[in-house]
Design goal:
It contains two helices and no strands. With 81 residues, it is mainly α.
Length: 81
């Protein structure tokens, strides 16, 4: 084989090796990102669970405060006095 053919094969092997190395790096970066996203998703789920009780309790709080609201509405304002 001529020297040009050997040189072509060597350069091709270097390009393939560099591309493979780059793909391995991308693979490991994506795995790290996946782990981070799993942690973020778990955190968001916890926040959603902890704040979900507000709508279920809100009607009973409003019902408990109705007498206070009625009393405040019965007090005449400065213009009514």
């Amino acid at each position: 084989m001529p020297a040009a053919a050997w040189m072509t094969l060597a350069i091709t092997a270097l390009i393939v090796a560099a591309t493979a190395l780059g793909l391995f790096r991308v693979f490991f970066h994506l795995r790290a990102i996946r782990r981070t996203l799993v942690g973020v998703t778990a955190g968001v789920t916890v926040i959603a669970e902890r704040t979900s009780t507000v709508p279920t309790v809100l009607p009973s709080v409003n019902a408990s405060l109705k007498p206070v609201r009625d009393f405040c509405e019965s007090i005449p304002g400065p213009k009514e006095a």
